[in-house]
Design goal:
Blueprint (H helix, E strand, L loop, with lengths): L2 E4 L5 E5 L8 E2 L5 H37 L10 H25 L2 E2 L4 E2 L1
Antiparallel strand pairs: 1-2, 1-3, 4-5
Length: about 110
Amino acid sequence: MPYIKRNSDGVIVALSQDPEAGFDEQIDADNSELRAFIEQWSETNKELASSDLAFVRVVEDVVDLLIDKNIICFTDLPEAARNKMLARRQLREDLHPRLDSLIGDEDEENGLFL
């Protein structure tokens, strides 16, 4: 059975497999309150992951802009960053011909960023 931590209103705010400081209440794994907490947490993580994907594209665009304006050189970036940018650029190029007629370059409403 998992251990939970509650706030001053008695609402579950954290979950642990082991008894730790502040996690002194055990609760059945099938408890409806626990399930609601896990579902809310999962939904928040999905929203954050979606936001991260959109933000990655923004960062790529900013780096490209800095390179285009000769503020930085592509070779100034660490090798790992260059490799990741090149790999993503190649993936976008591979997908672009198939998706261009359907969605264009960006379709923020549907969370697609090419």
